[in-house]
Amino acid sequence: MIFLFLSSMVNAQHIRLVDTGDNIVFLEEKDTILVYQASAKSLAGKFERVNYIHPLYSLDGDILTQDFPKDHLHHRGIFWAWHQIYIGDKSMGDGWELKDMHWQVRTIEFVQQADGASGIKVNVDWLSPKWTEETGLEVPFIMEETRITARPKKKNHRFIDVEVKLFALEPDVSLGGSEDEKGYGGFSPRFVLPEDVSFTGPGGNVEPKNTPVKSEGWIDVSGTFGESQKKTGVAIFAHPDNPGFPNPWILRKKASMQNAVYPYPGRRPVVLLRDEPLVLRYRLVVHDPGVDLNKLYRNYK
Question: What is the model's pLDDT at position 12?
Answer without folding.
Answer: 53
